[in-house]
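Box 3.1 A note on notation
Throughout this textbook, protein chains are presented in two layers. The first layer is the amino acid sequence; the second is a token string describing backbone geometry. Keep the layers aligned when reading.
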Amino acid sequence: MKTFSTLDELTALVGQDIATSEWTTVTQKQIDLFAEATGDHQWIHVDPERAKSGPFGAPIAHGYLTLSLLPLLFASAVKVEGTRMGVNYGLNKVRFITPVPAGSRVRGHLKLVSSEPVSGGGVQQVWEVTVELEGASKPACVAESIVRRYV
């Protein structure tokens, strides 16, 4: 975990790789709960027996489930003291490159692309997040995430 005393301290590192999160396991239970929450019950996600003979050889996480892990990955990688809150503001681009099989581990590599002041006493930051899939030659996901942090 990288800890910064102020937003200015973090902003000074624009253009740099900032941190790597802890590994987290994507479980079949998470996949099933995500399917319930979103209504996406496609068999490649929720039917482990059928998925064994499918194109990926096992059930895989929804791409949007992988994307929804970004706040968890950030929380284990970066802390900015003296801020009262952070909010997701959106995404500029997202690519799901490698499927994430149930039971596999992912972690995030965080690069700060930009950090600009916004009204209300905060900054808007653009982060390039590469979600690494343990043991895979290509990432699971690459996303440009926009986050606002307020002091």
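Strands lie at 2-4, 17-20, 24-25, 78-80, 85-96, 105-118, 122-133, 141-150. The two ends are 20 Å apart (CA to CA).
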